[in-house]
Design brief:
The protein is mainly β and about 180 residues long. The protein is built from no helices and 22 strands. The strands form four sheets. It has a nine-stranded mixed beta sheet with strand order 1-4-7-10-13-16-19-21-22, with no helix packed on it. Strands 3-6-9-12-15-18 form a six-stranded parallel beta sheet, with no helix packed on it. Strands 2-5-8-11 form a four-stranded parallel beta sheet, with no helix packed on it. The protein starts with a strand and ends in a 26-residue tail after the last strand.
Length: about 180
């Protein structure tokens, strides 16, 4: 197995791409990016000096800036947005104020969602399409809206858990949740 990079994409010297990774049309992966095995990037993605685990899927039109970490098995939907400075100004560069964002193993970020820097998205969490994350998201929580608010719990397999039983209808797992 090898790495595939479409001819229209640019991978800078110093970027590390894991075995089996695929980089599709019009992407730019900067020096300092560390990408795990079997990752896939849809067209028009940008990666700064970020760290990604194995089996990460990043759909079209996503930019991942300095300070973003995506753990194994993370899904990022089309046109999702990540930031790295809370109060940017063109005339006042704040590169020394970058804030980190960590997305935990198996989490999913919906299309057009925004994750404001400085927050953690927990393992297995689910960010609904169009949501704006302005605070930490607990493991296996589902959040949506502007700003994003708690909507329920998710199973590891990606199904919403019924509030009454917290038992997954698809895989049968149950997840006791302390509130």
């Amino acid at each position: 197995m090898s790495v595939y990079v479409h001819p229209s994409s640019v991978v800078d010297d110093g970027a590390v791409l894991g075995e089996g990774t695929k980089v599709w049309h019009f992407c730019h992966i900067s020096a300092g990016a560390r990408v795990g095995r079997n990752c896939v990037f849809g067209q028009n993605c940008f990666l700064a000096a970020v760290t990604l685990g194995d089996n990460v899927r990043v759909q079209n039109n996503v930019s991942l800036y300095d300070g973003v970490t995506l753990e194994d098995d993370v899904f990022v939907g089309p046109s999702a947005v990540f930031t790295n400075v809370n109060n940017p100004r063109a005339a006042f560069p704040r590169k020394d104020e970058y804030r980190r964002t960590r997305v935990g193993r198996g989490a999913s970020i919906g299309a057009n969602a925004t994750v404001v820097c400085g927050h953690d998205v927990g393992e297995g969490a689910f960010i609904a399409a169009g949501a704006v994350v302005t605070r930490d998201v607990p493991a296996f929580a589902m959040v949506g809206g502007v700003p994003a608010r708690f909507m329920g719990w998710m199973c590891r397999c990606g199904e919403r858990l019924p509030e009454a039983t917290l038992r997954c209808a698809r895989c049968g797992r149950s997840r006791p949740i302390a509130r």
